[in-house]
Fold this sequence. Notes:
Largest sheet of chain A: 8 strands, parallel, barrel
Strand order of the largest sheet of chain B: 3-4-14-9-10-13
Number of domains of chain B: 2
Order of helices and strands of chain A: HEHEHHEHHEHEHEHEHEHH
Structural class of chain A: alpha/beta
Number of strands of chain B: 14
Oligomer: heterodimer
Order of helices and strands of chain B: EEHHEHEHEHEHHEHEHEHEHEEHEHHEH
Number of helices of chain B: 15
CATH class of chain A: Alpha Beta
CATH class of the largest domain in chain B: Alpha Beta
CATH topology of the largest domain in chain B: Rossmann fold
CATH architecture of chain A: Alpha-Beta Barrel
Amino acid sequence: MADSGTERIRSMFAAAAEQGRAALLPFMTAGIPDPESSLAMFQAMTAADGFEVGIPYADPLMDGPVIASAGRRAIDLGMTIDAGLELVHQVAATTGKPVIVMTYANPVLQYGIDRFVDAIAAGGAVGMIIADLPVEEAAPFLEGGRRRDVGMALFVAPTTTDERLERIVAAQPAFLYGVARLGVTGEQSELAATASELAQRVRAVTDLPLVLGVGISTPYQAVEAGAVADGVIVGSALVRRVLEAEDAEQAAEALGAAVDELAAAMRGSES
Amino acid sequence: MTPDERGRFGEYGGRFAPETLLSALDELEAAFAEAWEDDAFRAELDALLATYVGRPTPVYHATRLSEQLGVDLWLKREDLAHTGAHKINNTVGQALLTRRMGKPRVIAETGAGQHGVATATASALLGLDCVVYMGAKDMERQALNVYRMELLGAEVVPVDVGAATLKEAVSEALRDWVASVDSTHYIIGSVVGPHPFPWMVREFQRVIGEEMRTQLKRPDVVVACVGGGSNSIGAFSAYIGDPDVRLVGVEAGGYGIATGKHGASLSAGSPGVLHGSYTYLLQDEGGQILEAHSVSAGLDYPGVGPEHAFLRDAGVVDYESVTDEQAIAALHLLSRTEGIIPALEPAHALAWVVDNADALRGKTIAMVLSGRGDKDVQEVAGRDG
């Protein structure tokens, strides 16, 4: 039997750490630039260590204009949860890399938590991230994840109090998703100072893997975030390249180049 | 009822919100709970409600209309409150709380513009910076209210995504809040959103029902419109538990429930998560939120407050709906028979009374006239022309 989801998440971080760097986890909305070309986008990001596949939701409170409009475009082009889950399966099967599913609470609740977890586990996904799910509401999702050994993430933010941080760690998520800056997803020129402060606070209380995301778009920021975290998520900057490209081929090319650049910077930072 | 420690009314409510906001929600819950028990806070609020808002608002016996319909109809005149709707009860309360929490800036969403105007008003009153998010489509149909907010010193930010109405405005306000939570309080306009909002906003609107109880002998029926549901819950809360009073909430039937173009989440929706709470909403099988439709911008919302969801399932309140056309006819009727032009939102409640006049014959009916109709005159004139 293959390794479990949480083990595969840990070994992804461990493999990157052996090379003296953090893991690079690009986020990409499922179904852009169109549902047929979506798989090619993931396959183009050859320098990635794993992927965050976004199942589109039309009212994404945690996302800025770029990812929000990508989600609406995918839905308008006919992207459904089932099609998203099929894509997860294809990405996992054809790239062999760990795939983490990201979405919002309502699509999962309507699909059924257990049914959703079963589907992503069967598709080969190793983890899931629900953007609007604080620890208070997470219990049934954490349980569902444990049952099929899909690693469920919980968020920590610069505004998270010490008391909340304790509670979040005590809920035993598979890993922590640190919100690098106050705000929704989007591109920023500098990594917020809040990101390293948050990472230090997390490190002080737990050994759980920590990824940083939200507002990380440039190689420089990725290096800075990678210096204090186990993994780095880059989303809007990559999604924007796909949305702006003239066709799928150009999108894949631009995406591959952008991820190469991010990866090269993160690899080079320790040498 | 008071929600449980997870902010749930039965299974409804809760806090489905990005972690970034959770500390602010904790802080808000504690600050409100403390303020609500503080006599000095209550005295300051009561004084403002009396001298600034104009409370208690009267209860008026609609004599001519009662005769015409064969019922005994009483109107709770929230349209006579400062700024012309019940929304001010909540915004003055939350603005006072904002000052108490030491935050200099507030944001709000608005549909019809009434809540935006009420928030801009309370912000001017207390010297707070104010930004109001409003759907671009709503800004068009409520241009007068946009200008009123600007006169009051608020910045109105158009939201031009999706249907460009109330749902998108709430989402955009929440996004602003995720980025500005350190310095900003979000004055949500109805009994929706993550805990503690549904509970807190209801407490600020309870004054409607409490006054009704002292002003009016026990009615057979209390009826109010339900969009997010703040004026109705404010009125109902004083009568819940009284088996002799029938409570009726009237939702926006739009073009008719069967057409799918309506705002009747309780009558025709299903439970799910929208804007931070688990409640009834309009959605497709995949959990994507559907566009609501109503002639009334204030009822043009695909969700509803979680306490209403609980009251619906418990059978405590009957939720009904009327169409756009019925509501417009009711607006005309009240204007001509009583000399009161109601907002399109409470015109829905009146339309239900009209529609059920035979069954209600001889009954005493207390209806919340939640706002005045000036803002809707242009919309109605456009349809009649």
